[in-house]
Amino acid sequence: MSQGYRNQISDTKVQSSDADALKNALQAIVDEFGVDKSDIGKLLQGISAGKKVVDDIQQPKLHKDKELIYDDPSCYIYRRNNTKNKYWYYRHYDKDTRQRYVKSLATTDHTIAITAARVIYQQVKSKVLQGHKLKNISTPELISLFLKRENLKISDIPKQGITPKRYKTKVITCRYWQWYIDDLKYTKTPIDQIPLSKVRDFGYWLMKLPKFGRGSNDSPRSPEVVNNCITTIMQMYRDVGVRDGYISSDKVPVIDKLSQKNDGTLKRDILTLEQYDKLWRWMQYKYCKDVDADDREIQKRIIFSKIVGVLSNTGLRSVEMLKLKVNDVYPNPLDKDKDTDNMLVRVTPSNSKTGVGRTLVAPIKKRIVAIKEAYAMLGMHSGPNDYLFRSTQGRGKVKSFSRETLANRFKQVLQSSGLQDEIDAEGMIINLYSLRHQYISWRIRYGNVPLPLLSKAVGNSVQVLMQKYAHIQVESQADVLTKAQGFLKMSETDLSTNLYNSDDD
Predict the structure, then answer these.
(1) How many CB atoms lie within 10 A of CB 430?
(2) CA gap 180, 45 in Å, rounded
(3) Cα separation of 416 and 208, whole Å?
(4) How far apart are alpha carbons 341 and 40 in whole angstroms?
(5) What distance in Å separates the CA atoms of residue 78 and residue 113, rounded to the nearest whole number?
(6) Which of 121, 249, 291, 359 is least buried, going by the fewest C-beta atoms within 10 A?
């Protein structure tokens, strides 16, 4: 090819950028060298492939200065080519579990880096052999995994999972723990690197934490509440941290629990017979006949007063009572006395706290009739599948009363009746749940009901009843416990007389 022709082609390439100029240049090459157009296509493909290889060679590698640890090809130290610092890094890859572990050694010194890497190597290998995960997780990640798992356990049937209320309690407990970890400045620290000695005082920290939310007051949390939170936290570390391989069992926090009195007494007080009689008379003759209240309010008060009577005569938990349907309360088909006030009450497994259904008997027929009549006066007639205790907030409501509504009205009743002043003066704690304890206590104290039978009625084990109501058993069985002790007194008298008249005097 002549020099002039080459210049012609070059000028064509430089000065022209349109398709026609390119075609003309390619045609000139074909004519000059006598090659086929397909050959030119292959040539261009080869040039493109070669350029890619060159680019790959010239592109800097991410890892440089790699050095194996203990000649193990699965792990090495290296420096990064895409950072300005010259820190050494540790990398470990387990091909069996396909887990990767990377950690900055935070040093530019080769000797320090290799020494630190060998320590980490031993730790990582130990984790692999024990089946633990190489990836570390922080406290927020641990909490997230735990709550996701607990959410799967939510069930409306007790003992077959956890209730929505219990799940909410766990969410709040985890929030407290996160705040505690934040205070300690360990938010981003892997859970296996948080010193166990630093978290043992969580219980004391929680006792001093102010209460939040509706109904909060200045009273401290009970040791029982705090200890339940501690149990939940330790459960989280065992169920997720240990079982999922993030930590070993010796890394589970051991948190100091608070001392609790365990003297067998009830956590809540109960009304005396005189106090209950005063409450009942006041509700019957003043509260439900208040001339200043409108008709609708009067019917609500009648319903509430009968609810107090139902709780006091059945020993039902308030949540169990509120879930009762109309057809869950019915006459005993074996009862020959048609005028009896006794009714059978069926607590289904789904409505029971223990997940075990039960049937009890109680003198509540007149109260149930009065409740149905009051609802009818409000325009709310009761069908067999309706809630027995429906909300009175508007006509046609099918949802049951809320426990909060009943609890608030009970507080108002205690205050308006004047009983709250007596209760406060005696240092007592009376609330809606006290009515259940009242029923159990009176059945033992005044009814001498055998504990096995009573346990079936109230849905508690005999062991629990013995633990909580042992002191009442002693009171009710005083005559039995002191039977024949007069004989001992006579023996003591005879013995003292003999000693007094002894020949040694």
Answers:
(1) 24
(2) 64
(3) 34
(4) 108
(5) 9
(6) 291
Please answer whether residues 341 and 354 qualify as being in contact, where contact means their C-beta atoms are separated by less than 8 angstroms.
no
Cα–Cα distance for residue pair 479/375, rounded to 1 Å: 47
Rounded to 5°, the CA angle 264-269-275 comes to 140
Residues 74, 429: Cα–Cα separation, whole Å: 66
Neighbours of 474 (CB within 10 A): 11
First vs last C-alpha separation in the chain: 155
Length of the chain: 505
Instruction: Indicate the residue type of 452.
Output: P
Residues 372, 82: Cα–Cα separation, whole Å = 79
Amino acid at 387: Y
Question: Which residues 6+ apart lie within 8 Å of 343 measured at CB?
Answer: 329, 330, 331, 332, 361, 362, 363, 364, 365, 368
Rounded CA-CA distance 57/36 in Å is 32
The tens-digit pLDDT sequence of the chain (505 residues) is: 445 444 444 444 444 455 676 677 767 766 766 666 676 666 666 656 555 444 443 444 677 788 888 877 888 888 887 777 788 988 887 776 666 778 788 898 988 988 888 887 777 776 666 655 656 789 999 999 999 999 999 887 666 788 888 899 999 999 999 999 999 999 999 898 899 999 999 999 999 998 875 555 566 788 889 999 999 999 999 999 888 878 888 889 999 998 866 544 445 688 999 999 999 999 999 999 999 999 999 999 999 999 999 999 999 999 899 999 999 999 998 888 888 999 999 999 888 877 788 999 999 999 999 999 999 998 888 888 888 988 877 554 456 678 888 999 999 999 999 999 999 888 888 988 899 999 998 888 888 888 889 988 888 888 888 877 776 666 655 555 556 555 555 555 554 455 444 444 3
- Write the class of the CATH domain 273-480: mainly alpha
Domain ranges of the chain: 3-58, 63-129, 139-251, 273-480
Q: Cα–Cα distance between 364 and 379 in angstroms, integer?
A: 23
Host H or E run for residue 140 = helix 139-152
Separation between Cα atoms, residue 162 and residue 170, nearest integer Å: 10
324 Cβ contact list (under 8 Å, min separation 6): 345, 347, 351, 387, 388, 389
